[in-house]
Amino acid sequence: MAEGQFPGTRLRRNRRTPWLRAMVRESTLLPSNLIWPVFVTAGPEAEPIATLPGIVRHPLDALPALAREAASLGIPAIALFPSTPADRRSDDGREALNPDNLVCRAVRTIKDATDAIGVMTDVALDPYTTHGHDGLVDRKGRVRNDATVEVLVGQALNQVAAGADIVAPSDMMDGRVAAIRRALEAAGHHDTHLMAYSAKYASSFYGPFRDAVGASAHLRGDKSGYQMDPANVREALREVALDIAEGADSVMVKPGLPCLDVVRAVAERFDVPVFAYCVSGEYAMVEAAVAAGMLDRGRVVPELLLGFRRAGAAGILTYHAPWMARALRA
Ligand code: PBG
Questions:
Q1: Are 166 and 111 in contact (CB under 8 A)?
Q2: Which atom of ligand 1 is nearest to the CA of 280?
Q3: Is residue 216 assigned to a domain?
Q4: pTM of the model
Q5: d(CA 308, CA 180)
Q6: Which domain does 129 fall in, by range?
Q7: Which residues sit with their C-beta closer than 6 Å to ligand 1?
Q8: What is the pLDDT of residue 21?
Q9: Residue of the CA atom closest to atom 2 of ligand 1
Q10: Ligand 1 center to residue 86 CA distance, Å?
Q11: Of these four, 87, 88, 178, 240, which has the most CB atoms within 10 Å of its CB?
């Protein structure tokens, strides 16, 4: 009988019973692996989002209860995304620097209510610009890198002053991580965690998110001039290497399911926590199939999120976070 061959080797032996499968399981999914992206509105009521069934924009006064509940479910952090009213948008996105803007008020509301959960904010100008781009544009509509970085630094400092624990630049400008880190250190914010959206692709899976934050109606052109080409993975490794060198505490790959190979490549190469964002279009795909009776949420969502963990993700940003955390506890 040759070694490592049937019948001496029978891989089904390890799959025979639930306890055996548990004993040899390679990956786990815990509530602590989930980060919950939450949309915020300045309005008084929760607002449904047509392209994200089951997800609403939350009014400020709903945030304390929401944060306490997430913490009690074992979710370590919430990522806040403001839906900015059209009259607060401008060409230069200066509302990003307003200490009383919606996201700063949301951060303070949560931080005043509980310390049991981390609060993460997105650094990019798209919630605040009339053209919907993540940065400042020139006369030809191209996003200007260095001028944008200066504003992003101010935006990040503004969020941290409001109490943000984690700042997450999602803009894909070159050099922004170094600039933000330098400014944070200079301002004495030595402990702010910087999660870099390092490998963020120009993806069509962000569509429902742009509806949720009111950017779809504004966006002129697309973001391929700064977000990554979905054809590339070697370039993602360069982005990650730069962001680590510039002072990122963790890095992110986005979108998720179309990029699990990128998650794997980054996790193998770098000793930094890697996060993946299972984005709005991925959530919408699953929920549309569930609503049509084509898929069973109770089975597909755990399988899908476990796939991120198997690929090497330390955690997953997912709109399914509270649902998943509850299911894990049951
Ligand atoms: C903003 C930002 C986007 C997402 C997170 N931060 C949209 C974009 O880059 O256009 C997408 C998240 C999602 O689709 O769930 N820069």
A1: no
A2: 15
A3: yes
A4: 0.97
A5: 28
A6: 28-329
A7: 122, 124, 126, 134, 170, 206, 209-210, 223, 279-280
A8: 98
A9: 170
A10: 18
A11: 240
* pLDDT of res. 217: 82
Catalytic residues: 200, 254
Q: Tokens 């390092």 — which residue? A: 198
Ligand 1 centroid distance, CA of 116 (Å): 26
Residues of the chain with pLDDT under 50: none
Name the domain count of the chain.
1
Q: What is the pLDDT of residue 1?
A: 67
Q: Is residue 89 part of a domain?
A: yes
For residue 67, the domain's CATH number is 3.20.20.70
Q: What is the DSSP string of 162-192?
A: HT-SEEEE-S--TTHHHHHHHHHHHTT-TT-
Neighbouring C-alpha atoms within 13 Å toward the C-beta of 52 = 27
Question: Residue 219 CA: which ligand 1 atom is closest?
Answer: 10
Q: How far is the CA of 234 from the centre of ligand 1 (A)?
A: 22
In the prediction, which pLDDT does 10 show? 96
